[in-house]
Amino acid sequence: MDAPFPAGLPFPTAAYLVLYLVTLWVHIAFMNYVLAGSATLAAGLVLGGRASREQPICALLRDWMPFMLSAAITAGVAPLLFLQVLYKEQFYTANLLLFFRWMAILPALILGFYLGYLLKTGPGRGRVWLGLGVFACFLFVGWSWVENHLLSVQPVGTWQAHYAAGAHAYASPELLPRLFLWFVAGFPTMALMVGWQLWDRARRGKGDFSDGARAGAAIGLGGVLASALWAWRYYHLMGETAQEAVAGPAAKPYLFLSIAGGAVELAAFAGLLRMARWSGGWLALGSAGLVLNFVGTGVMNETIRLALLDRTVGLAALAARHAESWKVGGFPVFLFFLAANVALMALCIRRVRRLPSPPAG
Amino acid sequence: MNPPYYPVSDFGPMMKGMVIGSLGIVHVFLAMFAIGGGFLMCYFQWLAQTGRSPHARRFVDGYFKALVLISFVVGAVTGVAMWFVSIQVSPRTIGMMVDEFHWIWAVEWTFFSLEITAGYCFYRYAARLADRDRFFLLAVYSVAAWFSLFWINGILSWQLTPGDWTRTREVWAGFFNPGFLPSLLFRTVTAMTIASLAACVVINAMPDLDREARRALINKAAHFLFPMAAMPVLSAWYFGTMPEDSRRMVLGGSIVMTLFMGLATGASLLIGLYAAFALLLKKLYINGATAALLVALSFAATAGGEFVREGVRKPYTVREALYSTSVTPAEIARLRAEGCVARDPYPLRDAAAYPNDQVRLGARVFRFHCSVCHTIDGTNALRHLAGDWTPAQRRMNIAQLQRTKTFMPPFSGTPEELEALVRLIEWDAAGRPADWPDSTGRGDWPGDRRRIREWLDEVGTAPGFLRSGGAR
């Protein structure tokens, strides 16, 4: 990895990584909405009580939470598939070692959805507990994914010891800091997505451009600052190999990209906060910053993973497996149906976009 | 090439196949409900917008809500769960499926995404959409859902009837395999049947409808039961594409398979008879309880069918490519020379519970070779299957495993590993005493070892069904 990603990698490895990252970014956008949104909703219910129901952001989050979870699950299928192609042995081993603990994410997702649905449609009583329940479910899922990832990049010796101990949880010093980084980094994404929704609603005469704008911009601003500070802290908690990977030629341009993206987001949220109303221009700028940030952090994350795996299985061995997988036919068919079905999805959305927004709830 | 070694999870007294089977049946049933439900709603939307049924529009909205709340989330999560459970049960099998068909799976994902998008657009906006737009969204939803089945069906049928893929390793040869079309058509009819029966439950749950209105809707929904008439032909076609040894298992070779096939056939027959006489011929009204019972019967039929589909693949998980032990046919000879657990890096979790190194080796051989289908003392336990055999009988039956039962894979370890497994079973059958001798230290071990090797050499590494006159 002596050149900026993906230039230094064999073509099949690079191609699978690009596909993995692109599909992962779509999943992360929805996932951030769900995790940060459920936290915002729970905080609103705990702190604001009945008044939070009238708060535009909370009302919107309550309305969209079940759909966003469904979208996150659906969008998560593709990166899960490419993850198996890229890091099969590591991912499978971590799954097997965590066993019941890992499998528990499935009932947690189902429970989270139905609690979210109850929060949206059910009676007023117990809403605080429902909100906390939804957040707890999604936080558990996030925790499990972080745990799975950290275990998957360990050497065989760690896997053996973990297996011999019969443990179903992996306690790494990196676990909580990494989970916290993912958590706080979700708020800017959620704030931008909510901002676009409220902006669109106001544009179509169903609300005001100032609805929730100050709160949304503050959440986004706080999220960017907190994630930047925590990323700096997390960098110093990572091992030497990971730090070298971040500062190495493959990831360094993406580190700058990520910082630039964060700065653009910061400027956009500051602009929105000053205006105290949703503006298409500031939201577009913030979204551009978010995309830069996603690209930067996503590539850095994969570069770190590759560097860690290079120590254990070796990049050459991984690349040889990817080259074998690439020989399998069907890629053009995938590209064709991806284009066709994305067009059909756009057509479906266009058909319903002609209608005025439905009332919340 | 050696097989990859993964840490093996212990499911306790549960047989791993039961876990994945149960989940798979729930997932398949929900998926069928979603697929058939799409077409049924298209039909009812058409009835509504052409003035043929005054209550059809209300039915569509009510049915769709049930579909979204049950199928979209539980169906989607159980789909992901199938991947995760498959990893727990047989990582090498799911790994091979992903290796061979990841682009097909990726294509399926694009259709699944389209299905969810169209479905949610309809769910959220249907009440205010014009008929033309409602029909468009339902049609897109239905076609996308059916194409999800189309792609997944190719991968699932490949496991049993890989066709020319075995020779060419070409993805389309594997996808459009001999079982692809009959399986796809059979599943389509099944989906329509489940959707129709579920509709009867939903119609009974709709408030403010009088009995006549319900009867009218039920009679319309029953039109989706007509294709059941094709089920016998489609079953026979699918049956004809199955490998001969798999067919023999269904026809009495394995009584469990025969019974489950009987359950699926009997339940389908009951539904078919009720549909033909009560719903289509007499146009009777059915209440919610009867409708729920029919849905339960359709679940039983699905469960039976899926159990058989999974079971008749034995001794393979991918026909002629991967045995249920996660060993390829090409690896067996080498493992018989070098040992199946010699390179397994994972230690025993309960090593101190065994009396000596030989039994510990037996426990590792059991974990690698047997634990995917068997337990020591739970369901489908070695204690019950082989606990009462004599030592010589155990040695020979395990050495010639594929001959003992043709749906068992060949044993793929050294004579020492086989003897260790035999001693593990004996030790367990003897009540797990603390003091237990190592049989390789006895004077008759060289003779026993030679006999085991002769049995292994005599039976070879080919699957048992070939020895009993079966065809590939």
Number of helices of chain B: 20
Main beta sheet of chain A, described? none
Numbering strands along the chain, what is their spatial order in the largest sheet of chain B? 1-2
State the end-to-end distance of chain B.
25 Å
* Pattern of helices and strands of chain B: HHHHHHHHHHHHEEHHHHHHHH
Low-confidence segments of chain A = none
What count of structural domains of chain A?
A: 1
Give the CA-based shape of chain A: globular
Strand/helix succession of chain A: HHHHHHHHHHHHH
Instruction: Average the pLDDT over all residues of chain B and give the rounded result.
Output: 93
Oligomer category:
heterodimer
Give the fraction of residues assigned to helices of chain B.
55-70%
- Total number of helices of chain A: 13
Beta fraction of the residues of chain B? Answer: under 5%
Number of domains of chain B: 2
Query: On the 0-100 scale, what is the average pLDDT of chain A?
Result: 93
Main pleated-sheet profile of chain B: 2 strands, antiparallel
Q: Mind explaining what this structure looks like?
A:
Chain A is mainly α. Chain A has one domain. Chain A has 13 helices and no strands. Chain A has helices spanning 11-48, 56-98, 100-103, 105-121, 127-152, 156-165, 175-203, 213-237, 240-247, 252-275, 280-312, 315-326, 331-353. In chain A, helix 1 packs across helix 12, helix 2 (56-98) packs antiparallel against helix 4 (105-121) and helix 7 (175-203) runs antiparallel to helix 8. The radius of gyration of chain A is 21 Å and the shape is globular. The relative contact order of chain A is 0.12. Chain B is an all-alpha fold. Chain B folds into 2 domains: 16-318; 325-467, no CATH class. Helices cover 69% and strands 1% of the residues of chain B. A two-stranded antiparallel sheet of chain B has the order 1-2. Chain B is elongated. Chain B starts with 15 loop residues before the first helix and ends in a 5-residue tail after the last helix. The model of chain B has no long low-confidence stretch (mean pLDDT 93). The interface between A and B is large, with 61 and 61 residues.
